[in-house]
Design a protein that fits this description.
534 residues, alpha+beta, four-stranded antiparallel sheet, 14 helices, 17 strands, 18% strand
Length: 534
Amino acid sequence: MVAIDLAFLVRIQRFVQCLQAHIQNADDWESIRSGMVYAEQKKHIPFPKFDSIDEVLERAALFASENQNLYFQGLTILPCNINFSVAPARALSPAQAALEGTETAAIHVAVRKGDVKVGNSSALLGVRVGRRNKTPLSVVRGVFKSIVVDALIRLDGASLNLAGVGLRNHISTGPQLTTYILAHYVNSLRQNVPALIGSLAAFGNPLGLIRGVGEGVSDFVNEPVKGFQKSVKELDPTFLVDGVARGTESLARHTVGGFADSASLLTDTFSKNMAVLTLDRRYAQKRDRDKTLRINGDGKVTLAGGVESGFNKLVGGFRDGVTGVVDAPIRGAEKRGIEGFAKGVGKGILGLMVKPIIGISDAATDVMIGVKSTVEKDTVHQNLALARNQLRPRRPMYGRDKVLRQFKVEDAAAAALMQRTSCAGHDYLSHMDMTNRVALFSVVRFLVLDSNGKELVSLLYEHVSEANARTFQEAGNVPTWRVEILLTENIEAVKGRRNGKLVEIVECNSKDEAIELCSQIKQGVDLVTNEDQL
């Protein structure tokens, strides 16, 4: 099961296009190989040896011109089934936007606004970046476009069934074989269009509802039959009773869960569209980032958790509506004077009417999600709303060059934690486990957190003059190790002075830990120093 959003697809397509253009425009492959330098460690990375694009195209053209026939005694491509969901593009926080970069953040904004182009000249998907709605007509058109695009792309549990290909004793040319296979899969995609429409979240995923109720009806019929057969074999009527109970329970569970799932998707779609109608971009982004549900230890949302979250969102909807009447005119006046104040008054009044309705709808959504998750025994068939809760920490990119390495869950968790600290928006470098503390290193600063997430130390590399691991022993106590960091500028929470310079002290549990911490700090300082020299 794959859950993606449209912004991700656009970014992947853009990456492939840029990579293709970079390879095609490379005149000197040796210069590319010599240019692959790991910025942090200054080590040359060998570039894989590929044939030049001209050679590949020349061979392909030669093959096509010769029109050679290919013979296949047997060519088999197995059928496949792809289950996937397309979630709406989430709003990025300021820290996430800084981390992703200007272009990527602009893509997310454009997708959320519905500025999407399909089948343009250069690619299958495209976006209009930086477009603004300056007239009332363009605002209305933008709202309508955002609602329509969201309704057409959000899929929940869609299933693509691609038929296989089987050829026996087949003779054809390369272009003919390619055309045949492409036509085969295009026809398969065309046959899946009704199933995709039936999986749209805007319609409540009716196909998923039918599928779930069908499973319940099947169990309602089959389980008593299995119980009856076993009762006759074992001469024990209790098996029949158990079969009837299991079938009835399955029918009730799938029916209630299916209707709750469809209801949650409908109310969630309604809430999102109403949030667009408020014309309050800041409110829509805040609501989008706060759309999370509390999960218990089994990875499921409980009914109690859904009710609790629903109540909080209900109260929050009325609170946002009331506070928006005051906040919107003030923000508008600060930006555009009298004109902004007048628009802010209109947004505030509109929000006062719409935001409480959104709160009620969000509350209903969370309650329905709790009902569905409670009645269902497995967590596999979770709806699109639960895709908000990320299953695995995001893969970190290392350093300013965003180097891709083998996935490590420890680094991913540390990088995610770093985005909730004063290092938010910085590129991840490394981290260090210090038993009851953790040290996080970005490309700009490092910090030490305690077990409660409190920042004990937070220093910019440019303020660090020197870091040394030293042993320290008080009278009558066991010697301990610590790292003394000499500072070049005045920083709050300073603990002492040495040779006229400020000193920050980090207590360590062992000699190895102190040496490793020193090494990590020096690596960050060297990185900043080298960048300043370039």
